[in-house]
Each structure stands twice: as C-alpha cells, then as structure tokens.
Amino acid sequence: MSTDIAFSDADWTRLERDWSAWWNHDLARPLLVVQSTAPATRPRPAWWDGRQFGGIPLDVPAEAIAEQAWDDLARTTFLGDAWPKFWTNFGPGVAAAFLGGRLEAAARTTWFHPGRWQGKALAEIRPEYDAQEIWWRRVQDVTRACVQRFAGRATVGYTDIGGGLDIAASLRDTQTLLMDCLDDPEAVDELCAQITPLWLRYYRELTALIAPAGRGTTPWAPIWSPQRCYMLQCDFSYMISPKQFARWVVPDLTACCAQMEHGFYHLDGKGELPHLDHLLAVPGLKGVQWVPGDGNPGPCEAEWLPVQRRIRAAGKLIQTWGPGQAVLRLAREVPLDGWIIATYAEDGDHAGLIAAIQRANAPLTAKAMVSVG
Question: How many helices (H) and strands (E) in the chain?
C-alpha cells in the first residue's frame, strides 16, 4: 500500500483560507477542483471495483475498506482547490435502509425498497431510530475506520443520508407516495414530520464521528467546509408542484439548514426548475448545485446561464462541473466568483488549464466585485 498523501500542512492552511473566504463571498475568483489518480500498481480485492459500499460483503472489515480508500488517495494528485477527500458511498438515500427499508446493491448503484413497510397503510409507517440496525452500524463503522486510518490527512465525507421526501418514497414506494400526495396529504405531512428529526439525528452522529479528524466536512460533491455542510436534495420533487414543494420540502430543508453552517442543494434536472424560487428563499441555504440531467447540454454550457444567474442574483453560491474547454468558455462570459467548478484538462495539462481559466475570468470577476462593493 502507498504510505502517504501528497498534501502538506501548508496546503491545508491554504485550503482553509481560500474556502473560508469563498463561503464569506470574499474570494475574487472561482474555486477550481482538479485531481488526477494514477493507476494502481498492484491487484486490488475483487470487492473494491468501484461499487457502492452496500455491495461489499458485510464480512469485509471496515478497516480493509479504509485501507483501500487510503491507497486510492495516496495515488491522487490534488490541483487547484482540490484536497484529499473520501466519500463513504452507500447509495443515494441510505437512511431508508436505517428505517426499515430494504437495500438492494447492484453493480454500480443502490436501490431502496419498502422492506418491512411493504403493504402497510401510509398511517402505519412509523420509522424509528434503531442504534443496532445493520446498515446504520455499517456506515458508522466504515466512517470511523476511515477517520482513524486517515489520521488527519484527508476529509471523510458524509454518506448520502438522502432527502426527507426521497426517504419517504423509498419506504412507501414512489408511485404509491405520489398518489398519497393527492389522496391523503395530511398523512404525508405526518410521515415527513417523523423523518426530518431522524435525518438530523443521523447527521449529528456522523458529524461526531467525522469532526475529530480536524479536516472539515464534505458531502459527496466536491465541497469543503471548515464547519458543518451537506448536499441536501429531493429528487421526488421532479414529480410534484411548487405548492407541494413548499408544503413538504421547504420545511425539511429549513430544519436541516438550521443545523449546519453550509447547506447546499442538489437541483437535479429541468423538472425541478419550477421550484427554484422557493428554494432560493430557504433560510440558511448557502448554495445550489445545478444538474441539467441526462441528454441535456452540460451544466457549464451557455444554455444554463439564466438559471445560474438567478442563483447568484439571490445571493447563493454555485457548484458545478464540466470539461476544461467548456469551463474556459464560461470563464470568458460570466464572473465566476462564488462558483466551485470541478474540471479537468482534456490534454492532461491541468495546471495550464487552471491558470487559463483564472486569467480569462479575472477581468470579469474584478469588475463584478467592484460593482457589488
């Protein structure tokens, strides 16, 4: 196994300085997250093939998972505003498994089904915290093992707990919950009201495991915070109206953002755009990640500038990604202060790309900062 990560204490000091300034809207440039991982030089276990962790046999020790994660990090070069991070990926919305749902791990994704709630009436679904639930214990064990193995040399990311209404959809079944939203909205109110405090408990307990490492926090997305952060979401909102979003999603987001300094939201697809005004009004929400969805132009293409300008005009930050040339074109069009962009150079010259993007955007960003000031 590789023995160290190429990221010094001076790099950590720079990281905290620049990201803290960015969160405070005081950084006159975008954050550019670029990294490159060298191929493994030795065989890796068959269970370590890029699958989500629910597919790793439960008899594989958490410490062995952490060791493989360490090896991947030690083969990675971190450029621009990137830093060593590892995401404990148990699938999108794993809290459904904590609360009685059934986890089904496929080759590259994870599905969640009603499990013990299959066939139950909506009013009979009463999720409760269970400290001994097998998947909750597994998430804690892997998180704890990574914190111990990394020993302050990398940030351990929160697992994807899920969005409140998405968790409800897993426990109830998506199509059934959609009908419930029409036929029994008061019972949906009640289920959502049960899930939010449970979500917050899982979040607090994971934070307690991660915080001792002293290297900030990160969700699955390339976002770093010196305090508490998370990428909130509600994929179910693609199928409901703005009025329903305000009823069931906004209260959950508001409660979650109140428990963290740096809450972000994963705005996934054009079907969620009708909710943008409600989203931008959520107290405490710091930023938005815009995802156009499959089959659409990438998030750094000019087609989406009106969406991203709305986000910035509301005082929110932005996280996105795209290939280097798309980001460079964007840098010539719009001030990118307040943006995090994960990117890469198609020709492999990552350092040159970072310099070119910052150079192209500097005049626009300087003008924008003067205008705001």
Answer: 13, 11
pLDDT at 230 over 80: yes
Token pair in block for residue 260: 């963290």
Specify the DSSP class assigned to residue 40. Answer: P
Smallest CA-to-CA distance from 142 within 214, 63, 67 is with 63
Domain positions in the chain: 9-36+49-372
DSSP code of 93? T
pLDDT band (50, 70, 90) for residue 140: very high
The one-letter amino acid code at 127 reads P
Contact of 242 with 274, CB cutoff 8 Å: yes
Length of the chain: 373
Torsions phi, psi for 233 (to 5 deg): -165, 165
Q: Distance (Å, rounded) from C-alpha 289 to C-alpha 313?
A: 15
SS3 content of the chain, % helix, strand, coil (to 5): 50, 15, 35
Pairing state between β 85-87 and 76-80: unpaired
Q: Domain 9-36+49-372: which topology? A: TIM Barrel (3.20.20)
- Helix ranges (DSSP H) in 2-127: 9-23, 62-74, 95-98
Q: What's the whole-model pTM score?
A: 0.96
